[in-house]
Amino acid sequence: MATRLSGVARAFGDRVVLDSVDLELRDGEFTALLGRSGSGKSTLLRALAGLDDEVTGKIDVTSSVAVAFQEPRLVPWKRLLANITLGLDAPVEKAKAALEEVGLTERSDAWPLTLSGGEAQRASLARALVREPELLLLDEPFSALDALTRITIHHLVLELWARHRPAVLLVTHDVDEALLLADRVLVLDEGRIAHDIPITTDRPRHREDPDLVALRTTLLAALGVSPEGRS
Amino acid sequence: MSVVELARPVEKPRATPKGPRRRVTAWHRWLSPLALLAIWQIASASGLLPERLLAAPATIAATAVDLTQAGTLHTAIGVSLQRVLIGFAIGGLAGILLATVAGLSRAGENAVDPIMQMLRALPFFGLIPLFILWFGIGEEPKILLVALAVSFPLYLNTFSGIRGVDGKLAEVAKTLRLSRGQLIRHIVLPGALPQTLVGLRQALGVAWLALIVAEQVNATTGLGYMINDAREFLRTDVIVVGLLVYSALGLLTDSLVRLLERRALAWRRGFLA
Predict the structure, then answer these.
(1) Count of CB pairs separated by less than 8 Å, A with B
(2) For A147-151, which contacts have Cβ atoms below 8 Å and span 24 or more sequence positions?
(3) Mean pLDDT of B98-123
(4) Which residues of A touch B178 (CB under 8 A)?
(5) Which terminus of chain A, N or C, has fewer Cβ atoms within 10 Å?
(6) Nearest 5 degrees, angle CA B55-CA B59-CA B64?
(7) Residue A231 belongs to some domain of the structure
(8) Which tens digit of pLDDT belongs to each residue from A187-221?
(9) In which residue ranges of chain A is pLDDT below 70?
(10) Which chain A residue's Cα is nearest to B263?
(11) pTM for this model (two decimals)
């Protein structure tokens, strides 16, 4: 079931963050949502995750949604495997398989606070994917990782997406990340979807690909930045 | 080649080993208490410190042995321990239960918290006369005084522990579709546990204090009775033995909680280390 939003709005006091968002997320499509900081990207994601009670408008979303947050948000007093199985109806073997997919089988007995940032973020992905969501929401989950770990996790995410094929909405402020991963890039500005740009370049993609270089300039301009950094 | 060299650990000249030196310092710390004990013994032996004010350390040690052999000490400890344990169980359960009610909802907080804050302001030792009127002079007022004393630190700490649980984890619970019961069991209560354990240690401290006070009132058994009875006969040695037993029991229960803490909070070791 595709996800549809129409006229979605949200204000915090006098500040209108989402003015009127119309959007359709198609099944199995990898969408990146870009926007300047404070543009309401995360607000939109929280609305889709059902974490915002005060949002207005029409949100038509599958009941099968999973979220990976910016901080991994593992439950610190549960060992890794128990974090994956938390609230899960499926047998424990599935959770073990999910840990294996993200390469954490050996850490399944570890306490979350002993994991590295990359490991914790991979665990958070496993916890989301083990629920076999139709819609996977990623709220800047790579922004706190170091550059090398981020590259590895980008590959992992694409691999997992190719295998499970959920619709993905990746909220990010990183233009390159959006270009490398997504089928489609949205730019949120002034509380509306200002741009909706498909990316048809084959994967695996390289940053130097001329199509992507051109798109980067377009997207940076849409975000109000020139490639040299001056606005 | 250079990589191999870099990977080789650099040999550092060994500093003076820390272990033995630390042991010497630990030993040093015993010197002043031992000296005090010696001065006390000499003062008693020379008659400077009369026995009706304070018995000599040697006398106290001998009395402790006598009381143990006669079984008096065992019986007294048994009775007192039982009072503390029952009182602690009642008060602890009530405190944690009320904190859960108050912590989980605004309505619960409005119902429970004002009353608890008012009761907390009462000097609970001042309640003894009322407790005697209500419950007589048997076991009940003693146990209930302990229970009352214990319930407040556990209530306050558990309440603030529940309210301090990371809201971000509650959001995770929501996205994982946990039921309210699961949320409480897997997120809220374990999240409040570190603070509850702080409350538990505070509660143990006041539990013994409450017992000592309660046992001064019309007790016919227990450590408090033993001490009061000794006062009648100017047996300062027995009084000191009783006091030492109280503090030993206090230390013992405290170390039990610390053991519990280490097991229950094993998940924190990672980031404390």
Answers:
(1) 53
(2) A149/A117, A149/A118, A150/A177
(3) 94
(4) 86-87
(5) C
(6) 110
(7) no
(8) 999 999 999 999 999 988 998 999 999 999 999 99
(9) 1, 227-231
(10) A77
(11) 0.80
Distance in Å, alpha carbon of A32 to nearest chain B alpha carbon = 20
Say if A18 falls within a structural domain.
yes
Cβ-defined contact of A75 to B269 (cutoff 8 Å): no
Give the separation between CA A149 and CA A78, rounded to whole angstroms: 24
Provide the edge-to-edge strand list for the sheet that holds A56-60.
Answer: A15-25, A3-12, A56-60
Nearest chain B CA: its distance from A225 CA (Å): 32
Structure confidence by residue, pLDDT tens digits, A3-32: 999 999 999 999 999 999 999 999 999 999
For A23, A43, A55, A192, B198, the CA distances from A16, given in Å and listed in that order, are: 18, 11, 11, 11, 44
Find the residue in A nearest to B173 (Cα): A87
Residue A135 domain boundaries? 3-222
Q: How many CB atoms lie within 10 A of CB A162?
A: 11
Backbone φ and ψ for A15, nearest 5 degrees, come out as -85, 115
- What would the two tokens of residue A122 be? 């991979």
Domains and their CATH numbers in chain B:
63-264 (1.10.3720.10)
Select the residue of A49, A73, A114 nearest B169 (Cβ to Cβ).
Answer: A73
Instruction: CATH number of the domain at A139, please.
Output: 3.40.50.300
Residue A28 is which amino acid? Answer: G
Report the candidate in A112, A119, A106, A113 with the shortest Cα–Cα distance to residue A152.
A119
Contact in structure between B40 and B49 (CB atoms under 8 Å): yes
CA distances from B272 to A73, B146, B194, B265, B268 (A): 18, 34, 13, 11, 6
Nearest to A87 among B182, B193, B269 (CB): B182
What ipTM score was computed for the predicted complex, to two decimals?
0.89
Query: Cβ of B269 and A77 within 8 Å?
Result: no
